[in-house]
Amino acid sequence: MSSTANRVIKNTGYLYAKMGITVFVSLYTTRLILNSLGASDFGIFNIVGGAIAMLGFLNAAMASATQRFMSYSEGEGDKEKQKSIFNVSLILHLGISLVVGIVLFIAGYFFFNGILNIPADRIFAAKVVYGSLIVSTMFTVMTVPYDAAMNAHENMKYYAVVGILESFLKLAVAFACVYTTFDKLIVYGSLMACIPLITLTIMRIYCHRHYEECIIAPRIYWKKDLMKEMGTFAGWNFIVSISNVLTQNGLSVVLNSFWGTTLNAAQGVGNQLCGQLQTFSNTMLKAVNPVIAKSEGQNNRNLMLQVSLKSCKFSYLLVIFFSIPASIEMPYIMKVWLHNVPEWAVLFCQLQILRTIIEQLTISLGNAIAAHGLIKSYSKVSSLLNILPLFLTWLFFKLDFAPYWMYIAWISCWSIIGGVVKLYYCNKLCGLSYKEFFTAVFSPCLIITILTSLIGIIVCQLMNEGLLRLLLVCIGTSMTFVFMGWKVALTAEEKLVIMKLLDKIKFKKRYEKNYL
To answer: Which residues cross the membrane (predicted)?
Structure first.
């Protein structure tokens, strides 16, 4: 088993251990919050939080740039360059956090005077939540260099510990909302804004103690040329990020303007559930993405492409393993999970899951393009595609189309056309073969999806709704998935890695049984 595979498996294991705890805690937390706040206040928090994210786009752009440069230089083995990257990004993010805070403060006036459709008696509470989230966003921006350093070192064990801590802090906030006698929305917004301050402070302390490049000395390590290079890369990422976040959260504003806060609650529930399902793939990608950038930094283009293709395939398979039975049994899951299911929530969740599934097919190709570095042309096209669903959704709603047309526009532009664009530029810039992509990723994933879904639908049609049917759907789809995955999706090399891993686990268990 290669050292790269060992590293990825080990880091993925840490992250999945975290996920096993945080997924259930997060789902239970959402249920508590929805029942405590009610659909209207939950929708208000979702729309105000979306407004914050819509103007916090610069953070995502710089985060991607910093992580790419840190991982790339880690692959080169240049520690002095890493110190320069860290200090340059630290100064940039300090400035960005101040700018973002000012912009968000000014934007708040417009949000609460004509843009957001919020009941008059809840305006004050919404403003308190908005102000709390501004402070939280500023601190989040300032932590990007530390996050990038941890990614470059592939320290996923620390992420697991902090992630578990964060999920239990959110659960504590949910219980505080249930039992508080004050305004629940204000309490929820204020306490949620405190969580990033706690977790991010811990991250900073850890990085300064464990990583030699995390040293604050801008006078020594400041490099103008490096700032220009990082700024150019981040500038194009900025254009993609602003179009992405503007549309993603702008859709919430459009939905709110035409349909009110109740449908924002349905959208928020869909985002929560789909976000938990997507965690299964994001967990693996968190471990894989630094390897992609490092491989390019080592001038190993073949390894970079192979890792990208494998992460696309396994990311897709991880998502559909849980998404297919969840989509089929969504009405029953919603009833058990929430009791009071917001209108349109079931369909919104199913469409959101479909969007996520399709995007997994090419999810790592964007990271391969970023690792290559020449992203100008790709960024222009991606930005146009990102912004298109916002205008299409507004047009659909203006013509009295149903709310689900928002997701149809979203899926068409982002998932389908956006995936084709990624594939084209990965071929053009990195030399990825179309045939290799369809053979290694698309074909096996499509076959497994069709057969697994067919089994789940048949079971669903033969039985009445209930816990027994849910269990049989999960068992049927899981058995089909595992069988077809082994026969169709895995290469001989991948099967060998899995067999060696299983042998290693069995040996460890025998050792513990006999000697411990």
So the answer is: 12-30, 42-64, 85-112, 124-146, 158-179, 185-206, 314-333, 405-425, 437-464, 470-490
